[in-house]
Write a structure and sequence with these properties.
By secondary structure, this protein is α+β, with helices and mostly antiparallel strands. It folds into two domains: 97 residues, Nucleic acid-binding proteins (OB fold (Dihydrolipoamide Acetyltransferase, E2P)); 289 residues, Bira Bifunctional Protein, Domain 2 (BirA Bifunctional Protein, domain 2). It has 13 helices and 15 strands. A hairpin with a 5-residue loop joins strand 4 and strand 5. The longest helix has 23 residues. The structure holds 4-amino-1,4-dioxobutan-2-aminium adenosine-5'-monophosphate and magnesium ion (MG).
C-alpha cells in the first residue's frame, strides 16, 4: 500500500502544500457542525496527525469516525497551529471497521487494565512510547558495542549447564507424562538430547568461550528463569545484554558498564524527546532532569562490606534483617541507591557464598570480585564480575558447591589454554527500560510478559 509515515509528515515541512496518502487507526474523532476531525495514528509517531473533513464535500466520512477503525486518507498537507500540520481530506477509505465493543474507548486506561489485552495495548500512547524507546535503546546498545570493536555473539538458548547455579532453569524435554522410567537418569538418557537440558539463564559461559577468541564480545538475547518471584521486576523470559571482555579486571568491567549505560541514556534523550516528555509528565515527574543529572556525574562505588555497615546504621526498619553474609534484598538495594547515593551505585566484593562459582576469588578468602549496579526506583539492573581465571581455584570453588564438573569441561579448558584475566556483566534490558521511562512494573515494558502463573 503506497503511503507516507505520519512521522515523516509531521517532521518535514516540505510536505506542506503537497498531496499525500496516509494510513492509520482512528484515535479520536469529533463531528462538529461544518467539519469533522479525526486524530490518526499509524504507530510511527507518538503525535497523532489531524485529518480535517469538510462536511460539504462528498466524502463518506461517517464510517471512519469510530475509534480503532483503520483507514486510508488522501489529502493535502496544510499548516495548522504553530508547529503542527494537518491534512485536508480529499478521500477516506475504511480498511477495517471497528465495532463499539473495542475496549480502548477511554482517553486513559490503567496499566493493569491494559495488561489484560497485550494484543491491543500497543495502540495506546503509553505503549507506543515504551515500545519506541525500547527499540531505540536496543539499537543504541548494538551501536555502542560496534563502535568499540565488540563482536556480537549469539549464544545457545538450550543448554546442558546451569550458569548461575541457582536452580532456576526451565527444563526442555520431549517426553510427556510417563511412568516408564525407574529413575531420573534413565529418563534423561531417553530424552531428546540424551541428557538433561534446559533453557539458558545466561549466555555468559559461552560468552566467555567467544571472548577467549574474539577478545571483546557481547550477547543480546532472551534468558529464561523459573524464579518463583511474583514481583514488579522479575520476568520468566527477559532480554539480557552480556558483554565479556578479555584482558580485563573488575575495574575495567565497572568502567564499561558505566559508559554503556550513559551512552544508551544519552541516545534516548537525544532521539526520543517527545516520548521522554510524555514519561516525565505521566510517569515520573523530573525524569528527564534525573537522567541528565545521572549521565553528567560519576556513578557511586561502595563495597558490600561498607554497604552492610551503612544499612545497619541506617535506623531503617527493613523487612529482611541485615547481617554480613546476607544477600541484599530490593529494599536494601533501593535504600543504598535512593537514600545514601541518590544515584546509580556499584556495589562490589560480595561474600563468595552468595555469588556464583565463576567469580574471581579475592585475596581475603571471603569475598569475590563481583559487582552489581543498583539504581533508584528499581534496584539491581546489572550483575557482573571478574571471572576466576585460575584452573585450580575454579575447580575448588565448583567442588565446594558440589557441582558436576563433567558438565563444564569446555569452560574449564579455557583456563588451561592461554587463560587471561577477563570479566563481564549482564544487564537486564527490561530493568533498564523501567529506569529510563519511569514505568514501575516490568510487565509493561515488554510486548508479552511471561511471569509465574501467567502466559498468553
Ligand atoms: O545478576 P544475574 O543473575 O547475572 C548473570 O546472569 C551473569 N551471568 C551475568 C554476566 O556476568 N554475564 O543477571 C544479570 C541481570 C540482573 O542484574 C537483572 O538486571 C537481570 O539480569 N535479571 C532479570 N531481569 C528480569 N527478570 C528476571 N527474572 C531477571 N533475572 C536477572
Ligand atoms: Mg544478580
Amino acid at each position: 500500500m503506497k503511503h507516507i509515515d505520519i512521522k515523516e509528515i509531521i517532521a518535514n515541512p516540505e510536505y506542506i502544500g503537497k498531496a499525500v496518502t496516509v494510513c492509520g487507526w482512528v484515535r479520536t474523532a469529533r463531528n462538529s457542525k461544518n467539519v469533522a476531525f479525526i486524530e490518526l495514528n499509524d504507530g510511527t509517531s507518538l503525535k497523532h496527525l489531524q485529518i480535517v473533513i469538510d462536511k460539504a464535500s462528498d466524502i463518506d466520512f461517517e464510517p471512519a469516525l469510530h475509534l480503532g477503525t483503520s483507514i486510508k486518507v488522501e489529502g493535502e498537507v496544510v499548516q495548522a497551529r504553530q508547529d503542527s500540520v494537518e491534512i485536508n481530506a480529499q478521500s477516506i477509505t475504511v480498511i477495517g471497521t471497528c465495532p463499539p465493543e473495542y475496549p480502548l474507548q477511554k482517553k486513559r486506561h490503567t496499566l493493569e487494565f491494559l495488561r489484560t489485552m497485550p494484543h491491543l495495548r500497543g495502540r495506546t500512547n503509553t505503549f507506543n512510547a515504551i515500545m519506541r524507546v525500547r527499540s531505540v535503546m536496543a539499537q543504541a546498545l548494538h551501536r555502542y558495542f560496534a563502535e568499540r570493536n565488540f563482536v556480537y555473539i549469539n549464544t545457545p538458548l538450550i543448554t546442558g549447564s546451569d550458569c548461575e547455579g541457582a536452580g532456576e532453569m526451565f527444563q526442555v524435554t520431549t517426553i510427556g507424562y510417563s511412568t516408564k522410567y525407574e529413575n531420573e537418569n534413565d529418563y534423561y538418557a531417553d530424552d531428546f538430547f540424551g541428557k538433561k537440558a534446559g533453557l539458558s539463564v545466561s549466555g555468559q559461559l559461552e560468552g566467555e568461550v567467544a571472548a577467549m577468541a574474539m577478545g571483546k564480545i557481547y550477547t543480546f538475547g532472551p534468558s529464561f528463569r523459573a524464579e518463583n518471584s511474583n514481583t514488579p521486576k522479575h520476568l520468566a523470559e527477559f532480554w539480557h545484554v552480556e558483554p565479556e571482555i578479555a584482558f580485563a579486571e573488575i575495574g575495567d568491567v565497572i568502567e564499561e558498564a558505566e559508559s554503556m549505560i550513559k551512552y544508551v541514556i544519552r541516545t534516548v534523550l537525544d532521539t526520543c524527546p517527545n516520548e521522554m516528555k510524555f514519561f516525565d509528565a505521566h510517569f515520573e515527574n523530573g525524569l528527564i532532569d534525573r537522567l541528565e543529572d545521572l549521565i553528567s556525574h560519576e556513578f557511586g562505588v561502595i563495597s558490600y562490606t561498607e554497604a552492610i555497615k551503612l544499612l545497619q546504621e541506617s535506623g531503617e526498619d527493613f523487612a529482611y534483617p541485615v547481617d554480613w553474609g546476607c544477600d541484599l534484598q530490593t529494599e536494601h538495594e533501593r535504600y543504598i541507591a535512593e537514600k545514601v547515593f541518590k544515584k546509580a551505585v556499584f556495589v562490589t566484593d560480595y561474600p563468595k557464598e552468595i555469588k556464583s562459582f565463576y567469580m574471581k576469588q579475592n585475596p581475603d578468602g571471603k569475598t569475590v570480585a563481583a559487582v552489581d549496579l543498583l539504581v533508584p526506583g528499581v534496584g539491581e539492573i546489572i550483575g557482573g564480575s571478574e571471572r576466576e581465571a585460575d584452573y585450580d581455584k575454579l575447580v575448588a570453588a565448583m567442588e565446594e558447591r558440589n557441582m558436576n564438573l563433567s558438565l563444564y569441561t569446555d569452560y574449564l579448558e579455557l583456563r588451561k589454554y592461554g587463560s587471561v584475566p577477563h570479566g563481564g556483566f549482564g544487564l537486564g534490558f527490561e530493568r533498564l527500560i523501567m529506569y529510563v521511562t519511569g514505568v514501575s512494573n516490568i510487565r509493561d515494558v515488554i510486548l508479552y510478559p511471561r511471569t509465574v502463573g501467567s502466559i498468553r
